């Protein structure tokens, strides 16, 4: 059960009421302005109550909202996108969609995690949990991008890497390690955006970037709250408590210097204006690339090194 | 000759003598083993060859020719998240420092193995399950940076439950940080051997453990990305016993070799030789002063 979806129900009913009243008012001579205004004020109040101060757990649920824009929605909004499939060894992993694209006229290699929208799609995409072949596809395409001097843009949305038998047999750890290794020295700009859920190493494997952007209500954490609760207390049901302690919100991560820029969402969350949100994210990615392409390659890699090299050092004594 | 550094460190942090004198039960075959006998047998059960998890300094003492000069040992983590569950995080750290006689989950430094100077990192499961937080990341980063500057080969023994939850995203980011230093080291021509010991999982297996030129695993070590319990809960069935063992990974083609502890040092000496050949750094190179401001090794010329 998604706590945001639950809390939205009253709002959606009210929204419908207002729409009905408005259409009635248009058809009948009776003046309903006062009534409509009253309802609209109430609506705004409830909206502020729900979304004004969201708890970390509510943010987690917002990041997992069933209507939230997914990786493929960002790819679809690019000028043009041609998918490149497969890891050349085992199979094409549908949890990661990637390929050549153009963003506002600029060539890019676009890589997105996608959880799938309906049940069939979710199964096909393994709920956005990539297997090793997914990371090996990333690895291959990052190398291709470097070869062609094309910037890499990634969209992160996963609860974590796939924890299945097959993934372990095909060395999930090695696949993620190599994905990080490849990004570490890629000869071109990399911009990563956390659009929903950034869960653990499975998310970071697409997140070693020159610029890390994050949507306001996305979350990014060392493990999914359920996973962290299981590891810490042997009880996945204490996920809400873990979410509170893990400091996984965009403001926390901006403070830690892990995220460079937070992209605001409309009140009520990204799904309330999916098209607008996607456009704002792509504009932010484009702005970041504008700056990064000016930097000579060696300096760019040097800055990338220093950016990650210092993370956490400040808290050590 | 002065007392070797590793021995000085070990003597300064001895295992409780009362405890050391006791008998230990092998978790695998239930044989009762006299602890000094176990130590003499490199913490391998004489009955079933079960490899006990080793203290970092014991591991170092088995490997190095004489001296070991630690770097970064003074680094202590803060409490970036202000973490408290049953007890505050700083208290957990203090407890583990006392229990393990270590300052953090990895010991890094310089030594020579079979006459070859190396940069050596050894993780220890006794300290917060070998989890990687900011200090483990920092020490590993320092190790690879120093190895690059001194043109030394690098050997890292991994033992880790993954990223340390109590340091949140700062812990996860150490995967990126260590990767960058491994990559730089490697691009500068460095030679890196990792030895995966029991257990090597999560963020450590998914970063520097699997970025080595040669990936060695100690016999029967548990190695994987996801924890066994997590997988069992996900697929709702019990996993076979050999799943995620070193031997299983060898069969799947994920690692170069599986080595019994008794043969490990000899094997590492050969691997260093294959990798370095004539370029092998002259013995005593590790004693040259570093070009940076970090503490230089005090004594390693033997
Ligand atoms: Zn035994």
Describe this structure in words.
- The complex is a heterodimer of chains A (317) and B (302).
- Chain A is α/β, with parallel strands linked by helices and 317 residues long.
- Chain A contains 14 helices and eight strands.
- In chain A, strands 1, 2, 3, 4, 5, 6, 7 and 8 form an eight-stranded mixed beta sheet that branches.
- With 302 residues, chain B is α/β, with parallel strands linked by helices.
- Chain B has a single domain, classed as 2-enoyl-CoA Hydratase, Chain A, domain 1 (Alpha-Beta Complex).
- Chain B is built from eleven helices and nine strands.
- The relative contact order of chain B is 0.13.
- At the A-B interface, helix 7, helix 8, helix 9, helix 10 and helix 14 of A face helix 6, helix 7, helix 8 and helix 9 of B.
- Bound molecules: zinc ion (ZN).
- Zinc ion binds next to loops of chain B.
Structural features:
heterodimer; A: 317 residues; alpha/beta; 2-enoyl-CoA Hydratase, Chain A, domain 1; 2 domains; B: 302 residues; 7-stranded mixed β-sheet; two-stranded antiparallel sheet; 11 helices; globular; binds zinc ion
Describe the structure concisely.
The complex is a heterodimer of chains A (317) and B (302). With 317 residues, chain A is an alpha/beta fold.
> Fraction of residues of chain B in helices?
25-40%
Q: Structural class of the secondary structure composition of chain A?
A: alpha/beta
Total of DSSP H or I helical runs spanning 4+ residues of chain B: 11
Mean pLDDT across residues of chain B: 89
Q: Which fold name is given in CATH as the topology of chain B?
A: 2-enoyl-CoA Hydratase, Chain A, domain 1
Rg measurement of chain A, Å: 21 Å
Q: Helical amount among residues of chain A, as a percent range?
A: 40-55%
Ends of chain B: how far apart?
Answer: 8 Å
Q: Supply Rg of chain B.
A: 19 Å
Total E-strand runs of chain B: 9
> Unreliable stretches of chain A, pLDDT < 50, 5 or more residues?
none
- What is the name of the CATH architecture of chain B? Alpha-Beta Complex
SSE order of chain A, one letter for each helix or strand: HHHHEEEHHEHHEHEEHHHEHH
Q: Major sheet of chain B, described briefly?
A: 7 strands, mixed
Pair with the biggest interface: A-B, 55 and 66 residues
Instruction: Characterize the main sheet of chain A.
Output: 8 strands, mixed
Named CATH topology of the largest domain in chain A: 2-enoyl-CoA Hydratase, Chain A, domain 1
What distance lies between the first and last C-alpha atoms of chain A, to the nearest angstrom? Answer: 43 Å
Outline of chain B: globular
């Amino acid at each position: 059960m998604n706590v945001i979806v639950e809390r939205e129900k009253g709002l959606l009913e009210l929204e419908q009421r207002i729409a009905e009243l408005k259409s009635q008012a248009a058809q009948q001579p009776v003046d309903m302005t006062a009534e409509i205004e009253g309802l609209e004020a109430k609506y705004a109040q409830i909206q502020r109550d729900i979304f004004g101060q969201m708890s970390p757990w509510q943010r987690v649920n917002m990041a997992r909202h069933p209507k939230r824009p997914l990786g493929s929605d960002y790819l679809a909004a690019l000028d043009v996108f041609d998918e490149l499939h497969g890891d050349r060894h085992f199979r094409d992993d549908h949890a990661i969609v990637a390929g050549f694209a153009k963003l506002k006229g600029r060539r890019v290699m676009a890589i997105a995690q996608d959880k799938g929208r309906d049940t069939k799609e979710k199964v096909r995409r393994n709920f956005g949990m990539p297997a090793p072949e997914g990371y090996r596809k990333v690895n291959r395409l990052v190398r291709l991008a470097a070869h062609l001097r094309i910037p890499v843009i990634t969209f992160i949305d996963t609860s974590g890497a796939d924890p299945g038998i097959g993934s372990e047999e095909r060395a999930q750890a090695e696949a993620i390690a190599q994905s990080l290794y490849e990004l570490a020295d890629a000869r071109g700009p990399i911009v990563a955006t956390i659009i929903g859920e950034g869960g653990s190493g499975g998310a970071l494997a697409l997140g070693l970037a020159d610029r890390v952007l994050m949507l306001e209500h996305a979350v990014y954490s060392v493990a999914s709250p359920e996973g962290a609760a299981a590891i810490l207390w042997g009880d996945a049901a204490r996920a809400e408590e873990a979410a509170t302690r893990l400091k996984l919100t965009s403001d926390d991560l901006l403070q830690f210097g892990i995220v460079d820029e937070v992209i605001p969402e409309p009140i009520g969350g990204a799904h309330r204006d999916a098209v607008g949100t996607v456009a704002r994210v792509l504009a932010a990615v484009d702005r970041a690339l504008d700056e990064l392409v000016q930097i000579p390659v060696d300096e760019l890699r040097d800055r990338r090194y220093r950016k990650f090299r210092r993370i956490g050092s400040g808290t050590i004594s | 000759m002065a007392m070797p550094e590793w021995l000085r460190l070990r003597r300064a942090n001895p295992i409780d003598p009362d405890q050391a004198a006791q008998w230990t039960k092998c978790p695998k075959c239930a044989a009762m083993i006299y602890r000094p006998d176990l130590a003499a047998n490199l913490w391998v059960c004489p009955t079933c060859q079960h490899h006990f998890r080793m203290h970092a300094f014991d591991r170092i003492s088995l490997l190095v020719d004489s001296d070991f000069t630690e770097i970064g040992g003074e680094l202590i983590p803060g409490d970036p998240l202000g973490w408290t569950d049953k007890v505050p995080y700083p208290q957990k750290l203090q407890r583990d420092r006392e229990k393990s006689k270590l300052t953090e989950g990895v010991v890094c430094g310089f030594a020579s193995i079979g006459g070859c100077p190396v940069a050596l990192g050894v993780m220890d499961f006794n300290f917060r399950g070998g989890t990687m937080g900011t200090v483990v990341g920092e020490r590993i980063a320092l190790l690879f940076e120093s190895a690059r500057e001194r043109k030394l080969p690098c050997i890292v023994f991994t033992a880790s439950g993954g990223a340390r939850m109590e340091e949140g995203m700062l812990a996860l980011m150490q995967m990126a940080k260590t990767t960058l230093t491994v990559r730089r080291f490697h691009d500068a021509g460095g030679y890196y051997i990792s030895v995966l010991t029991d257990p090597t999982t999560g963020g450590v297996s998914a970063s520097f453990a699997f970025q080595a030129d040669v990936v060695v695993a100690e016999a029967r070590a548990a190695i994987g990305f996801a924890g066994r319990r997590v997988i069992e809960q996900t697929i709702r069935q019990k996993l076979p016993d050999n799943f995620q063992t070193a031997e299983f990974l060898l069969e799947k083609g994920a690692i170069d070799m599986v080595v019994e502890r008794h043969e490990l040092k000899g094997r590492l000496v050969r691997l260093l030789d294959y990798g370095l050949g004539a370029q092998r750094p002259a013995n005593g190179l590790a004693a040259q002063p570093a070009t940076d401001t970090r503490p230089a090794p005090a004594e390693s010329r033997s």
